Amino acid sequence: MKEAEVLKFLHAQPQWLYEHAAEFNLRPIESKILSFQQGKMQVMQQRTEKMASQLIQMLGDADANHTLMAKFMAFTQRLLIVNTLAQWQRAISDGLNNEFTLPYHALIITADIPKNVRVPVNLHVNEKFKVIGKKLTAPACGALPVAALLELLPEQPRLESFLQLPLRWKEQTLAILVIGHEDEAHFSPDMSTEWVAAIADNMAAVLARLFKLVR
Fold first, then answer.
1. Is the Cα torsion angle 129, 133, 135, 140 positive or negative in sign?
2. What distance in Å separates the CA atoms of residue 186 and residue 198, rounded to the nearest whole number?
């Protein structure tokens, strides 16, 4: 065996030399042995700390997901019992206020309203919102919404971030929900919209039923 191979083996298995030192009449330096053992302990400690950190994060994520699911279910339950557009509007507003603490929001119909459906005055659509509804096909988060939607929100307090949420049914935007927040980072452009999209689907499904679009 070549010297390089021996050195490579000893570097890979440093404890081997300490375990067989007596066979070669060698006396290992105690401090070196201690350093090796300490090194192993440090590695084990680092691994343990990393696993503990990952476990804490997993538990935190589980708690957050459980809380979010509870809010989602409570919001959806409000929608299940509505029979009129006024009740639908109130259920959404109450859910945003109570479940998600989002008091600054506005809801507007963007589709043609069936003649036999009674609609609250503040939900009536006009042409500019119909145009917006055709263009807005997915949730949009960021610093500034479409100007016409911004006009629906209160001027005070100053809102810094916004969620524009189309309520779509069968590839058609029936309504738009716009939400504002005082924290500029609350609705960031890179945030996940999976949950809000699911809530939008539920709101749209109920609206489609009230519009008698569900067969």
1. positive
2. 19
What residues does each domain of the chain span? 1-80, 82-210
CATH class of 82-210: alpha beta
Tokens of 149: 């939607």
d(CA 176, CA 39): 60
Closest-CA residue to 107 (of 190, 198, 184, 204): 204
Q: DSSP characters for 101-166?
A: ----EEEEE-SPPPTT----GGG---HHHHHHHHH--S-EEES---HHHHTTS-SSSPP-EEEEEE
More confident residue, 73 or 28: 73
Tell me the whole-structure pTM to 2 decimals.
0.70
The predicted-structure confidence for 10-61, as pLDDT tens digits, reads as follows: 667 666 656 666 665 655 555 444 455 565 666 666 766 666 666 556 655 6
Sequence letter at residue 97? N
Q: Cα dihedral sign for 146, 152, 153, 158?
A: positive
Q: Is 62 helix (H, G, I), strand (E, B) or coil?
A: helix
How far is 93 from 98, CA to CA, in rounded Å?
A: 9
State which of 55-64, 85-94, 135-144, 188-197 shows the largest mean pLDDT: 85-94
